[in-house]
Structures are given as structure tokens and as C-alpha cells.
Amino acid sequence: MKPKTLLTIRRIVQFLFFVFFVVFALGAVCAFSLDGEKQAFSCTVGTLQVLISGTFIMWSLIISGLVMIVLTILLGRVFCSWMCPFGAVIDWLEQLIKRTHIKRSEKAHNVIVNPTSKYGVLAGVAVAAGVAGKPVFCAVCPIGNTCRAAGMQGVMLGLESLVIPVFAGLSFIKERFWCRYLCPVGAVLALTDKVSFLRIKLPAGTCVRCKRCENACPMAVEPWTNTHKQLKEDPAVLEALMEKGLPDVLCRPVPLKTLDAEVQGLLESKTNHKKIPGGECIRCFECAACCPLLNETKEKPADVAAEKPLSA
After folding, report:
1. CA–CA separation, 68 vs 76, rounded Å?
2. What contacts 297, CB < 8 A, 6 or more positions away?
3. Residue that terminates a domain, selected from 143, 164, 193
4. S-S: 271 plus which of 24, 204, 220, 288, CB 3.0-4.6 Å?
5. Where are the beta strands (DSSP E) in 165-228?
6. What residues contact 167, with CB distance under 8 A and at least 6 apart?
7. DSSP structure class, residue 223
8. What is the C-alpha separation between 269 and 265, in angstroms, rounded?
9. How far is CA 249 from each of CA 209, 233, 263, 303, rounded to the nearest angstrom?
10. What pLDDT is attached to residue 181?
11. Is there a contact between 138 and 31 (Cβ–Cβ < 8 Å)?
12. Is the pLDDT of residue 10 over 80?
């Protein structure tokens, strides 16, 4: 299946899950009840809060909390890009930003956050649950509030619904700001994703270094830069390039398949099993969908490589 086709399927599945969670499931993912008082099902972070607060323990709650963990181990962080209703809202807002050419804030580079910030949020959520004796984060969780925003009985507006535009609006600062830097659910899944079975593999051995995959990645994973850095630090690669008189070839926008056969073979063998590392990758397949080597393109490799040369 071609990556662009898979990307189209993801968008359809994402919409269907949004409709299911928001309209039909009556607040599923983090809060729907069987007895009208206690939650019967919960997300991983909701389950964690309940267990820490000692509110109550139900096997259905624990099992539902483990579902996302098991899913992530098997398929990676597909919940974030295929199933999460708030993730769908953020993706649709991102499409609006791109189509209307809205410029992000000039102060974006001054925002002191990084992907590890969400682990601090997760720790704060756990501490708050222990101190308050209840899952307090659920009240302001944009995922849960998106699920509870509407249903078959109509739109349910309340003060807590304000968190949806507030957290979604952070995308005007940086793409998928909430997912990359703040989401505690994403923090748990990022840790689990490090041992996941499904990983995306790009053709690094024949990469033309156009960096389209990195420009398309909503999580700023930088798949080629990471592989490129590993090649530059590999003693065998450096020795081979020195022998061929090509010490700086990895710093120039030259397609690897145009190099000496021996050097090309070495680089391909080093990158043959390189997959995008687990953790931040949400399996959205945006990188694969824009890769000229994985999709039909009329552009010549040399033209693509010259479009955006890879810096040293």
C-alpha cells in the first residue's frame, strides 16, 4: 500500500473515531459510567490518577487503562494520530493554518519547552491526584472535554469546554504544541512506544536528502537528521570516506546512490535497518507520504536533493 493511500485511510479513520467518541460513546476514553457514579472505563492517565488517589478500584477501569498501553506496544502511538478526538481537532486546525497561510507567532522560538516537558506535566498530574484524592486533571483534560462536548442529545457547553480552544490554540505557536510538549497521555504512550513493534522505515540508504520528511513531521522527529548524525559518527563510515577522498560527502546534498559503489554499499548497509526511533513518532505517516522515493514523482533525484540541501 502506498504511503499516500495509507495517509488518506488514517484521516478517514481519525474522523470516524472522532464521531464515535464525541457523538455516540457519550464521553468515552476518559469518562463514561455504567452505574452513574463511578467510571467504568478510563484512559491510561485517568486510571493512574484513580489508583494514586485511592478513590476506588474496578477491574474494568484497570483493564481499560491497559488497552492503550497494549495498543501502543503493538502498533506504536496510533492513538495519538488515528484515534484521539482532540488530536483530530488539532490536525484540522493545522490544515486551516496551512491553507490560510497564517503565520505562527514570532515569539515561538522563545517558548521554553521541549518534548520532555510533558513528563513534568504527567508527574504534576500524579501528585495532584494524590493530594486532592481524586483525578483532578480529568476536569481540564482537552481529550476528555472534547469527548464530552457533544452527543446524541446535543451540544454540552460549560466552563470546562473552554480548555478545548485554549489548548488547541497553542498550535498557533508551534505545530501540535499540546501533543509535543504538554499531553500527559502522550507522555505515557511515548515511554511505552520505545518498545513498540511497529516502526516506520524510510529509504535512508538511497535518501536524496531533501528533508521533506522532517518538514512534514508534526512532532519534529527529524528522521534523516538522526540517521545522518549516526553515519557521521560511525568510524567505519568515516574511514571509508577518507579512503575514497570524500570526507565531506555527508555534508553535501548528493544522492547516496550516485556515489562510488563501495561507499554506497557501506552506507546502505549501515542504514538498511534504521527505523524512526520510538517515543515521539505518532505513526501519522506524513513523512512517508511526502518522500519522493516512496511515491511516484516526476522530479529527478538531483532536483529534489537540491531543493533543500542538508546542512552539516
Report:
1. 10
2. 304
3. 193
4. 204
5. none
6. 86, 142, 178, 182
7. H
8. 6
9. 12, 13, 10, 17
10. 93
11. yes
12. yes
Q: Amino acid identity, residue 95?
A: Q
Residue 182 and residue 118: Cα distance in Å, rounded? Answer: 4
**Cell 529534489 belongs to residue:** 304
Evaluate the CA torsion angle 138, 92, 219, 103 in order and state its sign.
negative
- Regarding whether 218 and 140 lie in a shared domain, the answer is no
Please provide the size of the chain in residues.
312
Structural domain range at position 130 = 3-193
- Residue pair 216/278 in contact (Cβ under 8 Å)? The answer is no
pLDDT number for residue 84: 92
pLDDT tens profile 252-261: 666 666 677 7
Query: What is the C-alpha to C-alpha distance for residues 80 and 190, in angstroms, rounded to an integer?
Result: 10
Which of 4-8, 43-47, 184-188, 282-286 is the least confident region? 43-47
26 φ, ψ (degrees, to nearest 5)? 55, 50
Q: 136 exposed, middle or buried (CB, 10 Å; 0-12, 13-18, 19+)?
A: middle
What are 81-103's pLDDT values in tens digits?
999 999 999 999 999 998 888 88
- Answer whether residue 198 is part of any domain: no
At 269, is the secondary structure helix, strand, or coil? helix
Do 115 and 212 belong to one domain?
Answer: no
> For the whole prediction, is pTM greater than 0.90?
no
